[in-house]
Structure formats: C-alpha cells, structure tokens
Write a structure and sequence with these properties.
Largest sheet: 6 strands, antiparallel
Strand order of the largest sheet: 1-2-3-10-5-8
Distance between the termini: 19 Å
Number of strands: 10
Radius of gyration: 14 Å
Strand content: 35-45%
Order of helices and strands: HEEEEEEEEEE
Bound molecules: (2~{S})-4-acetamido-2-azanyl-butanoic acid
Number of helices: 1
Shape: globular
Structural class: mainly beta
C-alpha cells in the first residue's frame, strides 16, 4: 500500500510551483507508482486567468474550496466552479481557468505525470518530461 501525507509532501520535490505564477501542485501519486493515473492537490492562485490544452492527457478536476469558472473554448460555454464541482476534460478540451478566489483542487491525470511537468507554450504537458522526485 502507498500512504502519503500532503503536508509532508509539500516539503519535497513533489510540490511544483508553476513559473507562470498561476498555480502550484503537490503530486501525491505519479507514474512511478504504477496506478495508471497521477493524483495532485493543486492551488490555483486568486486572480489566475490562463488557457490550457492538455493534448496528451485526460484530466478530472474536483474543487475543494474557492470560486472560479472554466470556459470551454470549443463549446463556447463557461461553467462556474465552487466547492463540490467536478469537471472532466474528456475531449482534451481547450479551456481557460479563472479563479475569483484561491481554489484548492484535486486533479487526476491519465496517463500519469512523471512529476516535474509544467505547461508548455500550448498549455500542455509533454509526455516524457523529467521523472525525478526527491
Ligand atoms: C486545474 C489545472 O489543470 N491546474 C493546473 C495544474 C495541474 N492540475 C497540475 O499539474 O496538477
């Protein structure tokens, strides 16, 4: 069994702070755990407003706290996000995430992340980013 603790993981290489200043994410499960998905606790900073397009991954996102919205660009729809909301990017949807308050999210990625990924210029994660987690 794998047992990890968020507060402990925050003091390790599992905590990734995005260079764009929009978010940080502590990745509790990764590819090396061989679960078939990765599992992250992500903070979206207040005022963040940024596009993403996960062309290589499917992602589910569950809001624990905060408030914001997600705009799905190819649907032309915007959905409010509040505690209890889940959105699933089942079509690799191009989207814009906005945080009106800081949001705490649970994020699950398939295929799993290696650990150090940050968004490329398209707002995606490469499939073979560096794997090392201390
Ligand atoms: C909700 C979202 O996609 N935020 C960006 C960070 C990502 N969830 C991650 O790498 O944990």
């Amino acid at each position: 069994m794998i047992v990890r603790n968020l507060q402990e993981a925050n003091n390790t290489g599992r905590r990734i702070v995005s260079p764009d200043g929009n978010w940080e994410s502590t990745r509790l499960l990764l590819k090396e755990d061989q679960m078939g998905f990765s599992f992250h606790i992500t903070t979206i900073y207040k005022g963040a407003d940024f596009p993403m397009h996960y062309t290589n991954h499917l992602e589910s996102v569950y809001c624990l706290s905060g408030a914001g919205e997600v705009e799905v660009l190819d649907e032309g729809k915007t959905y409010p996000i509040r505690p209890g909301t889940l959105y699933a990017l089942n079509r690799n949807d191009r989207h814009v995430l906005r945080a009106f308050q800081e949001m705490k999210m649970v994020c699950v990625f398939n295929p799993p992340l290696h650990g150090k990924e940050v968004h490329n210029s398209e707002g995606a994660y490469e499939l073979e980013a560096e794997a090392v987690v201390e």
